[in-house]
Amino acid sequence: MESASMRCDPLAKVLAREVPTVRVAHPVEKIVETNRRMEVKGRDQELAELYGVHMPARRQLDRVMLRQFHRLPGFESSFVGLDDLDGKGEMITLDDYLGIPWEQPNVAFDLRAEMEAKLGMKPFEPL
């Protein structure tokens, strides 16, 4: 819904649109991610030695399954099941206390347009 000021002011329309943000990873984040991948790979090797080759394959299938579920566009997916599978639920990270959703600025977005883009549909045109 547009307010009266937005109908008159074209700049307000531009500012109300969602602006994609580019996030540059910090070098330490890259090191942490590389370390995490090495830990997962090592854990999978241990499981293969203890329980057989099927166990790392099963964990990989579980990871693929748990990555498929997303929230609606505009809402951040939390991937709780994936975090639990990887053992991240037991650790407190920077995102746990700096990435609190209710402290983020509200960004205006059109849910219908986002879903149409996600599903590959053509935009809705009113009659």
From TrEMBL:
**GO-annotated cellular components:** cytoplasm; nucleus
Q: Where does the UniProt annotation place the signal sequence?
A: none
Query: Key word ATP-binding present in the record?
Result: no
Q: Where are the transmembrane segments?
A: none
Q: Which UniProt keywords apply?
A: Chaperone
* InterPro entries for this protein: Ump1
Q: Which biological processes are named by the entry's GO terms?
A: proteasome assembly
Q: Give a yes or no for keyword Repeat in this entry.
A: no
State the similarity comment: Belongs to the POMP/UMP1 family.
Q: What is this protein called?
A: Uncharacterized protein
Tell me what organism the protein belongs to: Compsopogon caeruleus
Upper classification of the source organism reads: Eukaryota, Rhodophyta, Compsopogonophyceae, Compsopogonales, Compsopogonaceae
